[in-house]
Design brief:
Layout lengths: L8 E6 L3 H12 L4 E4 L8 H4 L11 H4 L5 H6 L9 H14 L6 E2 L4 E7 L4 E6 L4 E9 L21 E4 L14 E5 L3 H10 L5 E6 L6 E2 L7 H9 L1 H10 L18 H12 L5 H4 L4 H4 L1 H18 L3 H6 L14 E2 L2 H4 L5 E5 L5 E5 L2 E4 L3 E3 L2 E4 L8 H4 L2 E3 L6 H4 L18 E2 L13 H21 L4 E4 L1 H17 L33 H13 L5 E4 L15
Helix pairs in contact: 1-17, 17-19
Bound molecules: NADP nicotinamide-adenine-dinucleotide phosphate.
GO molecular function: flavin adenine dinucleotide binding; N,N-dimethylaniline monooxygenase activity; NADP binding
Keywords: FAD, Flavoprotein, Monooxygenase, NADP, Oxidoreductase
Organism: Sneathiella litorea
């Protein structure tokens, strides 16, 4: 028998983003005493923080929203096919307010440490306000891309102008009119920012280390009539997402790349290039992801498109990636990105040719030039997936630090649980299905599975759940195996755990962060595990005190 003391909460959720919001809704509905601790000043996660100009979905808006409430689906009108950050934050607030979820959230509460107490099977959380809170289960809804990373450049504190990472874009905005601005990085974030601010600034210097493949977003407004139609099709839309590998409405072309003529391939690509969203990536031939020759032919096609859109041939050439093919990392979708380089005030600085040396009081210094700047924007990405975990002192059985366990690469069971860390649950952890798919679809699936697990534990009076070492090894091996057939294994991107600014995450060593089997396969696996009575997970029994139910009811 295991001693089961009272805890402050039965469940503590860390993070009030897209995952945390849905997670707390389900916990409340189940009558579980739970709270959300959120480090930021309000809810919204990625959509609360990333307030840079141009920030918007790359998923179709109506596939990004929650599917759980018919009322929400009926009442919310997505105004654009790919909705922008302010609207997305309004949406999350609308959902939270509708179900009074804010009452169960605590803001400005950064969890600094989470320690498992073995003799009582509880978690102790240390919060930055000095409190220590206890709970039976801790649910990590801390985001995939929430740990921003800055370059390690000398003189960063010397700069006299404004400088910030895109994740911390000033909440009150910043007027860039007439300013000289430098932006470091050309990932998905910078590709959204550059064409918007190019219209305002006096001069824009883009410091590019490696170019990124990207293709048009082809955004548009959604009229009342179209939204009415979408509402009648929601069931089909979500079902289509569940059936597609990426969790999007886009499905791969069923034909083989080699079965069709070059003309037919070009016809498909011309069509996809003009269509909205990820079709150009996900409705393409499957070989694009796995076959070097097919990928090279398609990459050449996109390179030609870039040359057609950028007037200066040298600039066009610099914007075409040479070290990886199209789609082997998450594809940024753009609106007038390439046209921005046709503007006289936009300058591409190739820092492979002319390396960045330091930040000065007045700007940025490369080997060959000093750039005088009023503002420096660091669009330098994130320590993806495991980074947010590494910044909490998480200790499991035997006091073992999760950061140490995951130093080489994460190991998990289904991306949701970790051996040695009982009752620590992750609706969208490393190696889960959500990372490589349309996030909210993966998140809903993860939360639902965890709630079924908690219900199962309640029914059986279990108070402790931990995956076996073998189950974790098998799942991790499966995740690793899938990388072998994907060209993405060769890319320097967060899909392979690469981040040049984080020790141990530099190129040359793959960290297998992402499950690449696709949504249908992942969901089928989750169902199988649940149906087997959660094979691979060891449970421990009921509390000593028969009065105390393992999951306390708030009712
Ligand atoms: P990112 O794709 O990792 O790009 C970071 C950029 O910064 C890269 O160009 C990188 O160059 C550069 N960089 C990093 N450190 C540098 C250094 N020390 N010196 C010079 N350059 C440096 O990050 P991100 O653009 O923030 O995007 C991350 C992810 O967020 C995306 O993959 C996507 O999943 C998500 N996202 C989604 C949307 C959306 O539409 N929903 C929008 C934005 C972002 P190298 O490539 O040479 O390392």
């Amino acid at each position: 028998m295991v001693h089961s003391p009272k805890t402050d909460y039965e469940v503590i959720v860390i993070g009030a983003g897209v995952a945390g919001i849905y997670q707390i809704k389900r916990l409340i509905d189940m009558g579980i005493k739970a709270t959300v601790l959120e480090a930021s000043g309000d809810l919204g996660g990625t959509w609360y923080n990333n307030r840079y100009p141009g920030a918007r979905f790359d998923s179709e808006s109506y596939t990004y929203g929650y599917s759980f409430s018919k009322e929400v689906l009926d009442e919310w009108h997505w105004r654009e096919r790919f909705s922008s950050q302010p609207e997305n934050l309004r949406y999350l607030n609308f959902v939270a307010d509708k179900f009074s979820l804010r009452d169960h959230m605590q803001f400005n509460c950064k969890v600094e440490a989470a320690h498992f107490v073995e003799n009582s099977n509880i978690w102790q959380l240390r919060v930055n306000d000095g409190r220590t809170l206890t709970c039976r289960f801790v649910i990590m809804a801390i985001g995939l891309l929430s740990q921003s990373t800055l370059p390690k450049l000398d003189g960063m504190d010397d700069f006299k102008g404004a400088s910030f990472h895109t994740y911390y874009w000033p909440h009150d905005g910043i007027d860039l009119t007439g300013k000289k601005v430098g932006i470091i990085g050309t990932g998905a974030t910078a590709i959204q920012i550059i064409p918007v601010i190019a219209e305002e600034v006096e001069e824009l210097y883009v410091f590019q280390r490696r170019p990124n493949w990207s293709a048009p977003l082809n955004n548009s407004e959604i009229s009342e009539a179209e939204m009415t139609d979408i509402r009648t099709r929601y069931d089909d839309i979500f079902e289509a997402c569940n059936q597609s590998p990426g969790g999007f409405v886009h499905r791969p072309d069923r034909r083989s790349f080699y079965e069709v003529s070059r003309e037919e391939r070009l016809a498909l690509w011309d069509k996809l290039y003009d269509e909205p969203g990820f079709g150009i990536w996900l409705s393409n031939f499957r070989e694009i992801f796995m076959d070097e020759k097919a990928n090279a032919e398609f990459s050449d096609y996109i390179a030609d498109r870039i040359r057609q859109r950028v007037k200066d041939p040298d600039t066009a050439d610099k914007l075409i990636p040479k070290d990886h093919g199209f789609g082997v990392q998450r594809v940024p979708l753009e609106t007038n990105y390439f046209e921005a380089y046709n503007k006289e005030n936009v300058h591409l600085v190739d820092i492979q040719e002319d390396p960045l040396q330091r930040v000065t009081e007045s700007g940025l210094r490369t080997a060959a030039h000093d750039y005088d700047l009023d503002v420096i924007i660091y669009s330098t990405g994130f320590d993806a997936m495991s980074g947010a975990f590494d910044h909490i002192d998480i200790r499991g059985v035997g006091g073992d630090k999760l950061k140490d366990k995951w130093f080489e690469a994460p190991a998990t069971f289904l991306g949701m649980m970790i051996h040695g860390y009982p009752n620590l649950l992750m609706p969208n952890g490393p190696q889960s299905g959500s990372a490589s798919t349309n996030y909210p679809r993966g998140i809903e699936c993860g939360v639902n599975w965890l709630m079924d697990l908690l219900a199962y534990m309640r029914d059986h009076d279990y108070i402790r759940a931990e995956p076996t070492k073998m189950a974790e090894q098998e799942w991790t091996a499966e995740v690793v195996e899938m990388y072998k057939i994907m060209l993405m294994r060769k890319a320097k991107s967060w899909f392979t755990g690469y981040n040049s600014n984080v020790e141990g995450h530099e190129a040359g060593h793959i960290r297998h962060l992402v499950y690449n089997g696709g949504a249908p396969k992942y969901m089928a696996r989750l169902r199988t595990v649940a149906a087997s009575g959660y094979g691979g997970i060891e449970f421990e029994g009921e509390p000593a005190d028969p009065q105390e139910k393992p999951l306390q009811s708030t009712a």
